[in-house]
Each structure stands twice: as structure tokens, then as C-alpha cells.
Amino acid sequence: MIASRHLIALLAVAVPLLLAGPAGAQNQPSGTVQLEATAVSLGIGMQRGHGTLTLNDGRQLRFTVKGFKLGDLGISTLEASGVVYNLGDLNWFPGTYTSGEIGATIGAGLSTLMMQNGQGVIISLNTTQEGLRFTLAAEALVIAWE
Fold it and tell me: CA–CA separation, 58 vs 61, rounded Å?
């Protein structure tokens, strides 16, 4: 348990550094996100929820999320916060974000998830899940404006 907390803390520091690249020219932070979702799955999983994108200039925009996973089993609630990178235009934010994931949640669990859409927008999420869930999954998260 202590080792996993140290790993999560290390990832929380390392991921933004890796995203910054050697000269920091790419993957510029554009804002932050907060989201909440509920997931139910038996082999094929479904998540639904909502969130808020806060841009660097302080504007806040609401969005919905729908997630799909293959190879997922369980029921859980998810709270996540993170950083959005490369959002050159607000029209680039909605869309399908993909990632791969391996994990398990029994009770409460923490993880870091990196997702990217076809426009090159990257979302780095730190998630907290509660419930019972086992994952060896390819994930797609669809974001739309409310």
C-alpha cells in the first residue's frame, strides 16, 4: 500500500515533466479538468459522468463524458482531476480520447491516466475510484460540451 502511494506520487511528478519535452515547446498546459463518473461493467464497461474544464484564463466550461472499456469487470465511482495540454482551439476539446490501462480497485484506489484525442489534445488525469473493479482494458472516453 505504501509502495503504491509512492509510485502514484512519482507518476504525478514525472508525467508532467515527460509531457513538457526537452525544450517545453510542445504539450503546453491549456487548463485543468475535474470530473466525476460512475462505471458499470461485465466484460464491456460503460462510464457516464460530467466535468468542468477550467482554462488558463479562468473561464469554466461544462462537459459530459461517456466511457467504454473492453476487458473490464466491476462497479465503481470515479473522481478525477488533471491537466489539459495542447488545446489550441476550444473545438479541439470534444471528441474521443484513448488510452490503455491495467489495474484493480478494491475499496478505494488511486491511479494516473493519460489520454489523447485525434486533435493532439492530451489529458493527464489523477483518479480516485471506489468500489470493486478489475481492468485489463483498452479505453475510449467521449467528451462533449453540455
Answer: 10
pLDDT by residue (tens digit) across 28-74?
A: 899 999 999 887 776 667 788 999 999 999 999 999 999 876 656 67
- Is beta strand 122-145 parallel, antiparallel or unpaired with respect to 95-116? antiparallel
Residue 3 DSSP symbol: H
11-29 in b/e burial notation, b at 16+ Cβ within 10 A? beeebeeebeeeeeeebeb
Which residue from 127, 131, 146 is spatially nearest to 35, judged by alpha carbons?
127
Cβ(139)–Cβ(99) under 8 Å?
Answer: yes
Confidence (pTM): 0.72
Per-residue buried b or exposed e for 74-103, using 16+ beta carbons within 10 Å of the residue's own CB: bebbbbbebbbbbbeeeebbeeebeeebee
Helix/strand/coil for 118: coil
C-alpha distance across the termini of the chain, in Å: 38
